[in-house]
Amino acid sequence: MNIEIPTFLKPLVTFAHPLLMFLTLALALYAGYLGLQVRKIRTAKGDEKKTLQEEAGGTLKAIKDKHYISGSLLLVGLVMGSIGGMAVTFINNNKLFVGPHLIAGLGVAGLAALSASLAPLMQQGKDWARYTHISINTLLVGIFAWQAVTGFEIVQKLLSQLAKAA
Fold first, then answer.
1. Cβ-Cβ contacts under 8 Å for 91 (sequence gap 6 or more)
2. pLDDT digits (tens, 9 = 90+) for 37-49
3. What is the distance of C-alpha 59 from the center of its chain?
4. Looking at the predicted structure, is the pLDDT value of residue 1 above 70?
5. Secondary structure of the chain in the HEC alphabet?
6. What is the rounded CA–CA span in Å between residue 102 and residue 83?
7. How far apart are CA 51 and CA 84, in angstroms?
8. Is the pTM above the cut of 0.90?
9. Nearest-CA neighbor of 71 among 102, 114, 127?
10. How many Å apart are CA 157 and CA 45, to the nearest integer?
């Protein structure tokens, strides 16, 4: 099967994945920040709890809701970004390049799904699920940040190819 992307759309389609992933990495950092705020407020007592909620700009529930929504959007971005990146690579090259960038991307998408699956258990108050969620997401962001470096190298190669073609 040979699918051709129209020439005028090729740069847009090719660079949609890196742009989406850059925004998704920023979202991952934001979701992590919100998660830390939730953790601090949850474990605080009395006046300290009130102060932390004021500093964070909302109640514990409001911040938890923001964390949950940003985490949900993160899961969508990672899964769709993985699928989209593989699709564009295959359409442009008639093959996938199995290397560190692809393997890390699939791992990050899998870790995000695993992390999200812990939400019902965390809502039931299971501390082990919270610690596992935090550990998985710390690993996820580390791999994702490293993957951004390998992605930047790929973008540089693509830009070089575009410059030679022009």
1. 3, 4, 5, 13
2. 999 999 888 888 8
3. 25
4. no
5. CCCCCCCCCHHHHHHHHHHHHHHHHHHHHHHHHHHHHHHHHHHCCHHHHHHHHHHHCCCHHHHHHHHHHHHHHHHHHHHHHHHHHHHHHHHHHCCCCCCHHHHHHHHHHHHHHHHHCCHHHHHCCCHHHHHHHHHHHHHHHHHHHHHHHHHHHHHHHHHHHHHHHC
6. 10
7. 43
8. no
9. 114
10. 53
Q: Give Cα separations from 165 to 14, 38, 81, 94, 106 (angstroms).
A: 15, 50, 27, 19, 31
- The full length of the chain comes to 166
Q: Residues of 90-103 as b/e, b for ≥16 C-beta within 10 angstroms?
A: ebeeeeeeeeebbe
28: its two tokens: 């991952």
